[in-house]
């Protein structure tokens, strides 16, 4: 009787090896599996089209990877503001969220998110932002002193002394990462705390000292907490939440980036390097290409999620910035068009990932509701197969140069 070979028998890298190899520009024996993070509206559609009601979509799709071990640390406000509903009607709810921001949202979004900013990924629309907790230096200092105290109590699991033993054991073979939405970054948190317009006017000359003070205070707070946390455990990478661009343009100029953000990044990165952290990502939608040289100069090593519709193409970026790590870059819109488009997109992406390296395959954003459940299932099946395949097993891989010509010609007027 013939015995089938166990799956992954030929794999020789542990989970940590895979990430290290990708980041260093080598060829891994597989790629890590990542999720597609559906909107709340997307989940409702999927439940109506075959996904068992209440079941985790990632589990149902097989998109549950264990390569990454998240550092269990909360760098948001502690304590949070209580959620307060200040007005409501049949369609809208106006509330103060957990970070002290007053906003108006659709009732349906309130039911999905409970009004919490940390659940914003479930919303189907943007909020109408009305007021913010930071208006000047005095209000900032009040918020900072009340809610950004650099202690571990309330920021790590209550039984951390017990948990860290198991955490350290798992970290021997898994990649340890840190991301905290929305108040860990230099531009993103300030926009969240004082509002986009007020922040830009302050940076443009109205109150540059306030911007500098907030960044200095936050970086001091973060580094003090990390210094306490990383005495006991290892951390491989951190990701700064910024969202510093739209699909059409940057939200700040490269000069403003250098003036206000670079000093903070250099301070964070130099100190975290001494604590053993080696990789630093910026999380931003939109086209941040013009900022990449500035990011590289201050120590940023990677970007996420590499939004294709904004012109962020992995082949183009890989050629122009060979050392930059690209986490993401699979066009989510391909999943709206069906198997043929999905196959073309996966072939395009993995051709670049295998041949040029330093790519971690994932969608270029969370999954919107125009993706059917059947398309999500097809994508997940083929994505997993591509992630597990050796380069030679990809059927007729097309050279990345072909994709570069086809996909980027329009960006150069060809």
Summarize this, please?
With 414 residues, the protein is α/β, with parallel strands linked by helices. The chain has 15 helices and 11 strands.
Can you describe what's shown?
Helix content is 41%, strand content 11%. The longest helix has 22 residues. The chain has a 7-stranded parallel beta sheet with strand order 1-6-7-8-9-10-11. It has a 4-stranded antiparallel beta sheet with strand order 2-3-4-5. By secondary structure, the chain is α/β, with parallel strands linked by helices. It has 15 helices and 11 strands. The N terminus and C terminus are likely disordered. α8 packs across α9, α12 packs parallel to α13 and α13 runs parallel beside α14.
Overall pLDDT metric: 91
Shape: globular
- Kindly state the number of beta strands: 11
Q: Strand order, main sheet: write it out.
A: 1-6-7-8-9-10-11
CATH level 3 topology of the largest domain: TIM Barrel
Uncertain residue ranges: 1-10, 392-414
The sequence of SSEs as H and E is HHHEEEEHEHHEHHHEHEHEHEHEHH
Total DSSP helices? 15
Level-2 CATH architecture of the largest domain = Alpha-Beta Barrel
User: How big is the Rg?
Assistant: 22 Å
Q: What is the top-level CATH class of the largest domain?
A: Alpha Beta
Largest sheet: 7 strands, parallel
Q: Which percent range describes the beta-strand content? A: 5-15%
Secondary-structure-derived class: alpha/beta
Please indicate the count of domains.
2
Terminal residue distance: 59 Å
Into which percent range does the helicity of residues fall? 40-55%
């Amino acid at each position: 009787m013939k015995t089938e070979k166990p799956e992954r028998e030929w794999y020789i890298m542990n989970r940590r090896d895979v990430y290290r190899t990708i980041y260093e520009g080598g060829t891994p024996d597989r790629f890590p599996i990542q999720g597609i993070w559906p909107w709340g509206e997307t989940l409702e559609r999927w439940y109506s089209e075959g996904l068992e009601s209440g079941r985790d979509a990632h589990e149902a799709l097989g998109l549950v990877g264990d390569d990454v071990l998240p550092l269990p640390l909360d760098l948001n406000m502690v304590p949070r503001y209580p959620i307060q509903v200040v007005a409501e009607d049949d369609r809208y709810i106006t509330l103060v969220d957990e970070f002290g921001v007053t906003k108006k949202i659709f009732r349906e979004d309130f039911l999905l998110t409970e009004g919490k900013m940390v659940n914003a990924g479930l919303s189907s629309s943007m909020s109408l932002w009305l007021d913010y907790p930071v208006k000047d230096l005095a209000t900032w200092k009040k918020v900072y002193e009340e809610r950004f105290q650099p202690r571990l109590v309330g920021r790590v699991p209550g039984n951390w002394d017990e948990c860290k033993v198991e955490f350290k054991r798992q970290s021997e073979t898994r990649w340890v990462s840190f991301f905290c939405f929305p108040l860990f970054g230099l531009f993103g948190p300030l926009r969240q705390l004082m509002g986009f317009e007020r922040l830009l006017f302050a940076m443009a000359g109205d109150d540059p000292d306030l911007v500098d003070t907030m960044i200095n205070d936050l970086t001091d707070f973060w580094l003090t907490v990390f210094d306490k946390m990383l005495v006991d455990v290892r951390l491989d990478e951190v990701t700064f939440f910024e969202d510093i661009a739209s699909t059409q343009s940057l939200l700040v100029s490269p000069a403003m980036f250098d003036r206000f953000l670079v000093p903070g990044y250099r301070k964070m990165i130099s100190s975290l390097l001494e604590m053993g952290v080696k990789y630093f990502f910026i999380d931003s939608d939109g086209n941040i290409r013009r900022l990449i040289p500035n990011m590289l100069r201050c120590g940023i090593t990677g970007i996420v999620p590499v939004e294709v519709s904004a012109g962020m193409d992995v082949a183009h970026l890989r050629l122009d910035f060979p050392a930059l790590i690209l986490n993401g870059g699979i066009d989510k819109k391909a999943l709206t068009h069906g198997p043929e488009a999905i196959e073309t997109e996966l072939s395009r992406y993995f051709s670049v990932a295998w041949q040029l390296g330093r790519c971690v395959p994932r969608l270029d954003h969370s999954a919107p509701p125009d993706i059917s459940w059947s398309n999500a299932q097809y994508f997940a099946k083929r994505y997993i197969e591509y992630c597990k395949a050796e380069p030679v097993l990809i059927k007729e891989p097309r050279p990345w140069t072909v994709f570069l010509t086809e996909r980027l010609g329009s960006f150069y007027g060809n």
